[in-house]
Specification:
Blueprint: H1 2-17, E1 47-48, H2 58-70, E2 78-83, E3 86-92, E4 102-103, H3 108-121, H4 131-135, H5 150-154, H6 164-167, H7 173-179, H8 194-208, H9 212-221, E5 246-247, H10 249-260, E6 264-265, E7 268-269, H11 273-279, E8 281-282, E9 303-307
Parallel strand pairs: 1-3, 8-9
Antiparallel strand pairs: 2-3, 4-5, 6-7
Helix pairs in contact: 3-8
Length: 309
């Protein structure tokens, strides 16, 4: 299977860069990006204040934005800054607007991690559960993933070789993932792979009996008053998990505030402090080329010195 999807990926890349032939998708492709909905001031959830109101100098903010504008490596679409639950700076770049939902890319991996934590809190899974047990299969194809656990996926240490390239060359991502070879034993090393998050999305759906987005509706989206949260799906109709979620900046900020408050939102606990504590601590060391950031449970650790088993 690895040779097959790598071969298909190589052919697709050669088509993309060939000036003499049109690019033909390796699998049927239907664009899923939703049409923007006309926005309004209603999206402004947090109170707006001056930087000085939260103890920050306006000059400091101005200098930061100036330096950011000079950095040619940053393709900034917009920025929203909060402190103490108040927005003290926001700006839109070019045609991008804060009232229109935007692709979150890998930020949505953190949200999948929260969904897993909610299942954990409800006693429906353990982080050391085998993924094959949770998916209801003893392993598809020639290699069983019996020894791979939820924890291995959360910490990006599964070792599975089926990756993002395979996702554009295969229609059955679960089968391809399970048939793929292992580069190393689960837990041995860190290797970023969005397909780990897809499998977590699939686990949430299988265990809960509903889709990832529907599972989050009463547990996250409604409590945080996030009414727009379209999520692209794989060819089999499962949310992609590792990418494909669209949110407004203000709504993304709510997720950050929830985590910073240890899983509590407006006095109501949405996810246990125990899970948030583990998720935001160093669980796996990352290579130096990642910029000095290590990895928790699908997010960078807030406490780089702490570690939980």
């Amino acid at each position: 299977m690895d040779i097959v999807f790598l071969s298909r990926g190589a052919k697709l890349i050669s088509r993309v860069f060939s000036p003499n032939r049109r690019t033909v998708p390796a699998i049927p492709f239907v664009p899923q990006k939703p049409h923007p909905i006309s926005g309004s001031e209603d999206y402004r959830f947090f109170e707006r204040v001056t930087p000085e109101k939260v103890g920050i100098s306006s000059k400091t903010v101005k200098d930061f934005l100036h330096d950011l504008s000079l950095d040619k490596t940053v393709n900034l679409h917009g920025i929203t800054m909060l402190k103490d639950g108040k927005v003290f700076c926001e700006c839109n770049m070019g045609m991008y607007r804060g009232d229109i939902y935007h692709a979150t890319f890998s930020m949505c991996k953190t949200i999948v991690g929260l969904a897993v934590g909610m299942l954990f809190d409800e006693g429906k899974i353990s982080l050391d559960d085998s993924i094959t047990d949770l998916l209801g299969t003893s392993g598809i194809g020639r290699i069983s993933k019996k020894n791979l656990t939820v924890r291995h996926l959360l910490t990006m240490s599964s070792g599975v070789s089926f990756n993002e390239l395979g996702a554009v060359t295969e229609t059955d991502w679960e089968k391809a993932y399970m048939e793929s070879s292992l580069k190393f034993s689960g837990g041995d090393e860190f290797e970023y792979n969005s397909m780990n998050t897809y499998i977590l999305s699939l686990i949430v759906a299988r265990v809960s009996g509903t889709s990832l987005n529907n599972f989050l509706l009463p547990r996250l989206w409604k409590p945080l008053e996030i009414d727009i949260h379209p999520w692209e799906t794989c060819p089999k109709g499962v949310e992609k998990g590792g990418w494909g979620l669209y949110l407004r900046r203000e709504d993304a900020a709510k997720i950050g505030v929830l985590i910073m408050n240890g899983g509590v939102w407006r006095g109501k606990r949405l996810i246990s402090e125990k899970y948030i504590t583990h998720a935001t601590r160093r669980q796996k060391g990352c290579p130096k080329d990642y910029g000095g950031f290590d990895y928790g449970y699908h997010q960078s650790p807030g406490d780089p010195h702490g570690r939980d088993a």
